[in-house]
Write a structure and sequence with these properties.
GO molecular function: phosphate transmembrane transporter activity
Subcellular location: Cell inner membrane; Cell membrane
Membrane topology: Multi-pass membrane protein
Helix content: over 70%
Largest sheet: none
Structural class: mainly alpha
CATH class of the largest domain: Mainly Alpha
CATH architecture of the largest domain: Orthogonal Bundle
Number of domains: 2
Distance between the termini: 54 Å
Organism: Nitrosomonas supralitoralis
Order of helices and strands: HHHHHHHHHHH
Number of helices: 11
CATH topology of the largest domain: MetI-like fold
Radius of gyration: 25 Å
Number of strands: 0
Pfam families: BPD_transp_1
């Protein structure tokens, strides 16, 4: 009798757990559908309002007081250049820092403090990074209100994200790979460069995608360091006709970016400017998706070439 009762209790517990699993699954699906439907509704509204405004003139025209002739030329060029500086500054430094903390740094009290601070910095509000960049890059280093200062500010913003993602990707590599490399006489750097990095590259690239996707839509740090809301000229070209064919004058040029241009148009009362803002938002979403799509393609190629 006692065994029959125990079996019935076990059966009741299993049924109860399955019921809670079903409730949790339904709740998760509902939450996911709300999020997806909200995004689809907002994107559809932006697509309906902004699509008619998209034209070649919209991409090749400067901002204007007249909404019919206003464009995003200076905004999308500025966004591209700022993101280029951000990627060049944040990606190598973030990956290198993650490799050092995970593979080379001694496990002591100082390292633990650094790890905790890096993790916490990933959740710091972006305006704090803008104030830091204003005091450090704009005034202390004398970069001014330039593309270089904006790119470095966004690099500081996404640096903790890249470091944390790099460390997590390295941690996911089985310890047997390291042991096998050491058993065959490989050095520490040979193990990291020939085995750890290739196998963890997909996870590292995911962190880079998340970081750059956050940076391209940020407004607060860019406003803090002095991005212009109206600019009717382009930075100097990075490529020149004479030797050495590369110019860095564009790094010190004034700039604007897509979120700033959208904010400028949204703040205006005319409905035509609202349509311009919707079109600019659509372009920004496409730029983000294109950047993410390229990174996902590279991640797929890396995973395909890896032989376990």
């Amino acid at each position: 009798m006692r065994s029959i009762k125990s079996l019935e209790e076990i059966r009741r517990i299993i049924i109860l757990h399955k019921r809670w699993d079903m409730i949790f699954m339904i709740t998760g699906v509902i939450a996911l559908m709300i999020a997806i439907l909200t995004f689809m509704a907002l994107f559809a509204h932006m697509l309906i309002n902004g699509m008619p405004r998209l034209s070649w003139e919209f991409f090749t025209s400067f901002p204007s007081r007249h909404p019919e002739s206003a464009g995003i030329l200076s905004a999308w060029v500025g966004t591209t250049l700022v993101m280029l500086v951000t990627a060049i500054a944040a990606v190598p430094l973030g990956i290198g820092s993650g490799i050092y903390l995970e593979e080379y740094a001694p496990k002591n009290f100082l390292t633990e403090i650094i790890e905790i601070n890096v993790t916490n910095l990933a959740g710091v509000p972006s305006i704090i990074y803008g104030l830091l960049a204003l005091g450090l890059f704009v005034y202390q280093f004398g970069f001014g209100q330039s593309i270089l200062a904006a790119g470095l500010a966004l690099a500081l913003l996404i640096l903790p994200v890249v470091i944390v993602a790099t460390r997590e990707a390295i941690r996911s590599i089985p310890i047997t790979i390291r042991e096998g490399a050491y058993a065959l006489g490989a050095t520490k750097w040979q193990t990291v460069s020939d085995h750890i990095l290739p196998y963890s590259s997909a996870g590292i690239l995911t962190g880079i995608i998340i970081g750059l996707a956050r940076a391209i839509g940020e407004t607060a740090p860019i406003i803090t360091i002095g991005a212009l809301t109206f600019i009717a000229f382009l930075p100097p070209s990075p490529v020149k006709n004479e030797f050495p064919y590369i110019s860095f004058e564009w790094l010190t040029a004034p700039f604007t970016v897509m979120p700033i241009q959208m904010f400028n148009w949204v703040s205006r009362p005319e409905e035509a400017f609202q349509l311009n803002a919707a079109a600019a938002g659509l372009v920004l979403v496409v730029m983000t998706l294109a950047m993410n799509g390229l990174a996902i393609y590279l991640r797929y190629r890396m995973r395909k070439n890896i032989k376990w």
